[in-house]
Design goal:
alpha+beta; six-stranded mixed beta sheet; 13 helices; 18 strands
Length: about 425
């Protein structure tokens, strides 16, 4: 991996939090992701399952973590299973984790090779009453491919039908949504790398540059700063492309006088950042563009202040909608009659701002978090309002990542990334 090794104390702490929530006499198993085939012998780059990474720090395929806090023997309470390395693998694929190195990474002393998994699991099952299976229950998830985790669950149910079944995901949804200080530092590093990429663009963007050239500048800066690359598929949307919320073609020329909506950010050590900025191709916003830009910025600033412990996600979006409604009235995009006659299920402001304002962020860009539960300190949220005006040929979205504090306003992890229109113009015209 490109990132610096993370202190194993973080993963020891994460496991203690998880096992404290497990039922008595229960086992939990977590699998790495597959390496997914493309065609012939081609594969997609490996991306580790965030749950096993969160609990172990292991960033390698074909790894399994077994947790059994009530095991009869100390060495059985935490076990890692790894693909056995060899001289042949080292030559053809590079370094894989040895048992000693796995301990350094994870803090887990008991490490076996993968071929011993079924034998050892069988022994654990004779002691245990309950198995925690790890299913994907994220509110945005649509899983069509059978994952390694899903295959394991199917196999386990066939072989151990007499055991009770419990779910890991509700525990992880709560634990992962509240960040440890080490995690906040890693997300900050991702944000700092994103800042470097964004500042690079401000001196690069000129009329007639292409969206894909901008993408190339970003990936260059991200990788040279130890990021694996983009935290998610980048959106580099010039002109009317900005009105397609998930525009990812990035293949058009940026024309003089247009704006470019950038929704682009780096990952670091599997932790995401998530940035949106909207910049002028020619280095200056026109009067209308700046008016809309500043309206979006005011909504973002007001929305940020609402992110405090105890806030409910659904009500928060209602309140942000009121602020956005006021700004759209000021811009002349809606009028009082639109508001008076609006459908409560789809308020008038939704014509120009149709997506949510915030989501959890962390190991996943749309991270774990139970939306029906109140917000807590050390949760990380995006704040990303936008106004999209196809009739005028542009859309504007601004987004920062913030940490909820025990008291007061959230801490902005992107506080150093230029966002004021005047500062962006100044930097683009240096």
């Amino acid at each position: 991996m490109k990132y610096h090794q993370i202190n194993s104390a973080l993963f020891v702490k994460n496991r203690k939090k998880f096992t404290a929530e497990m039922k008595p006499n229960s086992v939990a198993v977590f699998n790495s992701n597959d390496i997914y085939p493309v065609s012939a012998d081609s594969t997609l780059p490996f991306a580790q399952h965030r749950d096993i990474f969160y609990l172990s720090g292991v960033d390698q395929e074909e790894s399994i973590l077994l947790l059994f806090p009530d095991a009869p023997y100390e060495h059985q309470k935490e076990i890692l299973f790894l693909k056995e390395t060899s001289e042949h693998i080292a030559i053809w694929e590079g370094e894989k984790l040895t048992k000693e190195r796995a301990f350094q990474v994870s803090g887990i002393r008991t490490v076996y090779w993968l071929q011993d998994f079924h034998k050892i699991l069988n022994e654990m099952m004779t002691y245990a009453d309950t198995m925690y299976i790890n299913t994907n229950e994220h509110y945005r998830a649509t899983v069509e491919t059978e994952t390694r985790e899903a295959r394991f669950v199917k196999w386990w149910k066939e072989h151990y039908p007499a055991h009770n079944v419990a779910k890991s995901n509700p525990i992880l949804q709560r634990l992962r949504s509240v960040k440890e200080s080490e995690e906040l530092d890693l997300i900050q590093q991702a944000c700092d790398i994103t800042e470097k990429g964004f500042r690079r663009l401000l001196s690069f963007v000129k009329p007639n540059v292409t969206e894909y050239e901008i993408e190339a500048e970003l990936i260059h800066e991200f990788i040279r700063n130890r990021s694996k690359g983009f935290a998610y598929t980048p959106i580099i949307a010039s002109g009317n492309n900005a009105n397609v919320l998930h525009y990812i073609e990035n293949n058009q020329q940026c024309k003089e006088g247009d704006l470019i909506l950038l929704d682009v950010a780096a990952e670091y050590a599997n932790y995401s950042s998530d940035l949106s900025r909207t910049i002028p191709v020619s280095g200056r916003y026109n009067e209308r563009q700046k008016a809309v830009y500043n309206a979006v910025l005011r909504v973002k600033n007001e929305a940020t202040k609402m992110l405090t412990p105890g806030t409910l996600w659904k009500q928060y979006h209602v309140e942000v909608g009121k602020v956005m409604t006021s700004e759209l009235l000021g811009l002349g995009l809606i009028d009082k009659a639109d508001v008076q006659n609006e459908n409560p299920e789809w308020p008038a402001y939704k014509k120009y701002f149709m997506h949510g304002t915030s989501h959890h962020m962390g190991l996943d860009t749309h991270d774990y978090g139970l939306l029906h539960e109140p917000m807590k300190a050390n949760m990380v949220f995006t704040v990303e309002p936008g106004i999209y005006i196809p009739a005028e040929g542009f859309g504007i979205r601004l987004e920062d990542n913030v940490v909820i504090q025990e008291k007061g306003e959230p801490f902005n992890l992107m506080r150093n990334i230029p966002i004021e229109a005047d500062e962006i113009e100044s930097l683009m015209n240096e």
